[in-house]
Specification:
Structural class: alpha/beta
Helix content: 40-55%
Length: 300
C-alpha cells in the first residue's frame, strides 16, 4: 500500500525534475528517496517515472497516479490544519457525557458560555440515568469528559465542581408549604406516597438510601423515567419528590423545601488519563461556570 511519504517523494521528483534536487528539497539521501519511489512503483504495480540522462519523465501510469498523489497530500495537509486548529480551540468536536440531572440544571449555562467562546467546536451530549453507566461509558471511550458523582477507582484526572444540594418538592397548597423556615424532615413525609424514580435512575438509589436513614421506605405513587418529570409530578400533587435543587426552574409553581438535615452530593468532571486541549478547556469552563448549588455562589 502506498504511503503519504512515498507520494510526497513522487511529487517532489516530478516538481523538481530530478531525484537529486528532490532529495535536497526533502532533506533525505538520494538512495533513500529512490528506494521509496521504487517501493511505490511496486505497490501500484508498474513504473511511474522514466529516468532520463538529465531529467525524469512520467510514464502513462505515472500521469494517472500523479493527480491522486497530489490530492492525497492536500487532504493530509487539511487534516493536519484541522488538528492544529483543534489544538488551538478553534474547531473540533467534543463528546460530553452526563447524568440526567446535570444536563438539566448545570450544563445549559455552561454550554451557552462555551458556544460564545468556541463557536467552531461542536458539542455532542450523551445522557445516562445512573452514575455507574456514566463511568462505564467513559471507560469504554464513548465520551471525552463525564459529569456526575465522583467515580470509583478512576485513574484519570478528576475535578471537583461543587456540592449539589437536594430539595423536596410539594404542591403549592400542601400544608407544609407555608413553613417560614422552608425546611422539612424526611421523616415527616414517611406516610406519603412519593414521586419515585425508575429503578435504573441513580436518584432511585439515593431516595431509598436517605429515606432508610430517616427510618422508612418510600412508597412509590409513580416512578419517573426522566428526572425532569419528578418536580412537575410532585407539584401536580402525586406525592413529594426529592430532586437536585438546581433543576427547579426559577418560577416553579410548586413548593420547594430544603431537607433537614440537608441532603448533598459532590459532583465532578472527569476525563481519561491524557485529555486533549479541548477537553481540558471544557473542564476548566465547567469549574468556572457550573452553578452546582443554587443556594450558594457559583463554583470556581
Amino acid at each position: 500500500m502506498a504511503t503519504l511519504r512515498q507520494l510526497e517523494y513522487l511529487v517532489a521528483v516530478v516538481d523538481t525534475g530530478s531525484f537529486t534536487r528532490a532529495a535536497e528539497q526533502l532533506h533525505v539521501t538520494q538512495p533513500a528517496l529512490s528506494h521509496q519511489v521504487r517501493a511505490l512503483e511496486t505497490a501500484v504495480g508498474g513504473p511511474l517515472l522514466e529516468r532520463l540522462p538529465r531529467s525524469v519523465r512520467l510514464t502513462p501510469m505515472g500521469r494517472a497516479v500523479l493527480p491522486h498523489a497530489r490530492a492525497a497530500l492536500a487532504e493530509a495537509e487539511r487534516l493536519h490544519a484541522v488538528a492544529r486548529r483543534t489544538a488551538g480551540l478553534e474547531e473540533g468536536e467534543l463528546d460530553v457525557a452526563a447524568i440526567y440531572s446535570v444536563s438539566l440544571g448545570i450544563l445549559p449555562p455552561v454550554l451557552r458560555a462555551w458556544r460564545r467562546r468556541h463557536p467552531g467546536v461542536r458539542i455532542r451530549l450523551r445522557e445516562y440515568p445512573h452514575a455507574d453507566r456514566l463511568q462505564a461509558a467513559m471507560a469504554a471511550g464513548r465520551a471525552d469528559v463525564a459529569i456526575g458523582p465522583a467515580p470509583a477507582g478512576w485513574e484519570g484526572p478528576i475535578r471537583e465542581l461543587g456540592v449539589e444540594e437536594f430539595a423536596v418538592v410539594l404542591p403549592a397548597d400542601d400544608p407544609l408549604a407555608d413553613r417560614a423556615a422552608r425546611t422539612v424532615a424526611l421523616a415527616e413525609l414517611a406516610d406519603r406516597d412519593w414521586v419515585h424514580y425508575a429503578p435504573d435512575n441513580g436518584l432511585a438509589d439515593l431516595l431509598d438510601h436517605v429515606a432508610a436513614q430517616a427510618g422508612f421506605h418510600p412508597r412509590a405513587a409513580v416512578r419517573a423515567e426522566q428526572t425532569s418529570a419528578a418536580p412537575l409530578l410532585a407539584a401536580a400533587g402525586l406525592g413529594p419528590a426529592l430532586v437536585p435543587a438546581n433543576i427547579v426552574p426559577p418560577h416553579f409553581d410548586g413548593a420547594v423545601l430544603r431537607p433537614d438535615p440537608p441532603i448533598r452530593r459532590t459532583l465532578t468532571a472527569y476525563t481519561r488519563t491524557r485529555p486533549d486541549p479541548l477537553t481540558v478547556a471544557f473542564a476548566d469552563l465547567l469549574a468556572e461556570q457550573a452553578r452546582v448549588d443554587p443556594y450558594g455562589p457559583p463554583s470556581g
